[in-house]
Design brief:
Elements lengths: L3 E2 L4 E2 L4 E2 L4 E2 L4 E2 L4 E2 L4 E2 L4 E2 L3 E3 L4 E2 L4 E4 L12 E4 L4 E2 L4 E3 L7 E4 L4 E2 L4 E2 L4 E2 L4 E2 L4 E2 L4 E2 L4 E2 L10 E2 L4 E2 L13 E4 L4 E5 L1 H6 L4 H16 L4 H11 L4 H11 L7 E2 L4
Parallel strand pairs: 1-4, 2-5, 3-6, 4-7, 5-8, 6-9, 7-10, 8-11, 9-12, 10-13, 11-14, 12-15, 13-16, 14-17, 15-18, 16-19, 17-20, 18-21, 19-22, 21-23, 22-24, 24-25, 26-27
Antiparallel strand pairs: 25-26
Helix pairs in contact: 2-3
Length: about 260
Amino acid sequence: MSTQIDPRAAVSSHAKIGERVRIDAFAVVEDDVVIGDGTWIASHAVVANGARVGHNCKIFPGACVGHAPQDLKYKNEPTVLELGDRCTVREYVTLNRGTAETGRTIIGNDCLFMANSHVGHDCRIGNKVIVANGSPIGGHVHMGDYVILGGLSPIHQFVHIGEHAMIGGGFRAVKDVPPFILAGQEPLVFEGLNSVGLRRRGFSPKALELLDQAYAILYRSNLNVSQAIARIKSELELIPEVHSMINFIEHSKRGIISGRSRR
């Protein structure tokens, strides 16, 4: 199938449009845009200057991809928004491009952004991330692969969320969320290992057991973070998953979320 552009769409002749692209009526595609093969741009969606959209994406009505960042320091510098392959951007999602600080917002492959969610400037979003309805992600946030963010859950700027973590709906994150865990409550706390998700993705029983032991030491041993990490290193087998956990915590700048208080 050849590329199909509805004559009522406003598509710049300077935009680079791939093969088998479909652009529906009243969509807007600005000058400095690249759209990969097989992508669909729905009616009333806007793909703004600086957007680099991957292959086989679906951009639903009212979505705004690549608009200027919501940052008062931004002075219209040329920056980009990179959206990976096979991403789904639902109604009224906003994905902002970067600022001069990093130059780009980067989103991986196979991500789903549900209606009214937002990705701020200079974010780094991994592969197969799911962001549920109405969740705003502040600038400079880093999210690892397979993160799931529940609906109406704001993420503070500069927060890092580790791979395979899941945050429940309606909870805000102002500190870093380590990988492989479930987080919930207000303020946000560690609620346990994301065991169901990890099993579905093929993690071995050994990996689950060692991660469970590592997080028990971190959150249930009454040690401070440095002491807990030292104990994990000395007592547990440092398989790649445990090493990833340790590396995330050791490089956290905002500090990690707390454990559930005991009563």
